[in-house]
Amino acid sequence: MRYDEDWDDRLDTLEPLPELEPLAPDVEEPRPPRRRWIRKRYIAAGVVALFMLLVGWLAITAPLSRSLQPIAPPSITLVADDGTPIARRGALVAPPVRLSELPAHVPQAFIAIEDRRYYRHWGIDPIGIARAAWHNLLAGGVREGGSTITQQLAKGVFLSNDRSFGRKGREALIAFWLEAWLTKQEILERYLSNVYFGDNVYGIRAAARHYFSREPEELTLGQAAMLAGLVKAPSRLAPTHNLSGARARGRVVLQAMADAGFITQKKAQSEPRVRLKVRHERDMPTGTYFADWVMPAARDQAGAVYERQEIRTTLDTRLQKLGEAAVRRGAIRGAQMALVAMRPDGRVVAMVGGRDYRDSPFNRVTQARRQPGSTFKLFVYLAAIRAGMTPDSPVLDKPVTIDGWSPTNSDGRYLGEIPLRRAFARSSNVAAVRLADQVGRKAVIQAARDLGITSPLADTPSLALGTSGMTLLELTSAYAAVAGNNLPVRAYGLPKEQQGWIATLWNRPKRLSTRERDMLLDLLAATVERGTGRNAQLAVDAFGKTGTTQDARDAIFVGFAGDLVVGVWVGRDDNQPVPGLAGGGVPARVWRDFMSHAIPGAAIRAPEPVDEDPEPVIQLDENGLNGSIDVGPVQFGVSADGEGVTLSAQPSDTPPPPPESRRPPPEEVDPDMEPPRF
């Protein structure tokens, strides 16, 4: 046997070795339980300490002692941009209500729309906050709030209305405080007795009296729903200014009451439409036209507070005085007048809503909706420019009939084919109607919308002549859009809040193209230089348009120069004609009067006086008789001696009037009267 074979036999007889067990991993010895417990205790103690410090800070800064006291009616002082007080206003309030004396549907309406879980939370509703956050996330913005009725009541005790984390924390603390010390019934009574309902009205009793001339104990279901709906945006939804919006919001409240089980679906749908019966207070609060206009926005900015607040406005006291003086000097018997001045960005610096606020607080700048007349032609010509026309493009100034209607020029003159520039300057009615029909009235309406006109515009042939009503503030804002080349311009009376970079990018204004704006300025300048607006000429570049409505019921001039955009309206409150009234007359002269004082160097220097009956210069001496007399630019001389009489003529030494006093020679005088009868 070989050696290797013997070795194989031996290997076969050996038993296999057992498998080796894997080595156990190194295991760290557990720490003693006591050390781990001490660490958790320190962390918990730190959290509790921070929480106590936060609560202590909130308790010190939050006026808890005031939270159980009656809320004082807020008082606001409006000041001009230089700090000069211009108006002080207090709130319209009434005695508080008792929940037990109100119809059940009154508190139910507020609970359904503002805080459906009111009786199931302790001042803060995490479920409501989460639901509102989810809805806002789906909507892509803030559409719904999560504040409870208790939190809304708590807002009234703060000395400021900032939106900081600290204020929200103090608000939550006071909400818990109110829930701990007051019953749900008492909290709801205080809320209903102090919440803001628009029109400077606080509390449901004052609101019921103001809007419906009745007590809150007599409110119908529809009336209660409308009042509950106002709480979301009281200034915007006040039914005296936005009845349709208030009614629509009231329908939302009725549906919310049905969803909450307070009323049936059938009842929510069958409730009749609410009608107003506004009670006008005998004692009108003192103020100004500007203060009346800006006060609702000031109320929203101030919120409900204990102490008097000062709200700074955009009003310029110097320009306001100049505007009031210009209106006084230009007033005509039997007619009213209004003036508004703003910067090109819409910042209102002067507002005169009538001849005398004490006699009539009705604001003819913001409240009167009158026809703009030919000032509306700005939008017609903008549409024409967008269609490819230029100020040199021809247009027919001839009679025309569209849809059975035949407009006429006020002076009865028709010049045939003329450039757009001349048609705009002389305010040709037939040319404007032809242009609107050529480019399409929808294009004209779109041009008006782009410049900021929001009032309804009737799609009829007379649209081009300004037959759709709008306010002077709205019309002047549209001209400001051209002046500043920002579309659209919204007039404002309170300084704008600083926007974040996202909002700045999202809300970037539109602009006219360079071509569009330059051509509009060409047309507007032609009106002032040689058209119907020559009474508005200044020593600086001026741009504007006249407008006169049917039968001389309204006369308007709107224009801009420097950094001011100004609109002037003249007419009667009863809409009766004013004989001889035209936009190129009194309104243009009042506009020039205001601008001449408001803009440095804008006043046209009067020419040096010329002696119409000059006294001759005569000398008598031993050489005979010598004399001279200046007649205009020529000096005539005469001399007499023993040889006879000698006559002579030579240029006068009197210098001509300075260039500033020279005005363009008149081309044609066309009264600005639009639109004709139809």
Q: Would you give an account of this structure?
A:
The chain crosses the membrane at residues 42-60. The chain contains 22 helices and 14 strands. It is α+β, with helices and mostly antiparallel strands and 678 residues long. The chain has 3 domains: 76-270, Biosynthetic peptidoglycan transglycosylase-like (Penicillin binding protein transpeptidase fold, Orthogonal Bundle), CATH 1.10.3810; 324-598, DD-peptidase/beta-lactamase superfamily (Beta-lactamase, 3-Layer(aba) Sandwich); 622-654. The strands form 4 sheets. Strands 5-4-10-9-8 form a 5-stranded antiparallel sheet, sandwiched between helices. A 4-stranded antiparallel sheet has the order 11-12-13-14, with no helix packed on it. The chain has a 3-stranded mixed sheet with strand order 2-1-3, covered by helices on one side. A hairpin with a 2-residue loop joins strand 13 (634-641) and strand 14 (644-651). The model is unreliable at 157-165, 282-286, 611-622 and 653-678 (pLDDT under 50).
Q: In oligomeric terms, what are we looking at?
A: single chain
Beta-strand content estimate? 5-15%
Q: Tell me the domain tally.
A: 3
Q: What do the pLDDT scores average to?
A: 81
GO molecular function, one term: penicillin binding
Protein name: PBP1A family penicillin-binding protein
Family: In the C-terminal section; belongs to the transpeptidase family. In the N-terminal section; belongs to the glycosyltransferase 51 family.
InterPro entries: Beta-lactam/transpept-like, Glyco_trans_51, Glycosyltr_51/Transpeptidase, Lysozyme-like_dom_sf, PBP_transglycosylase, PCN-bd_Tpept
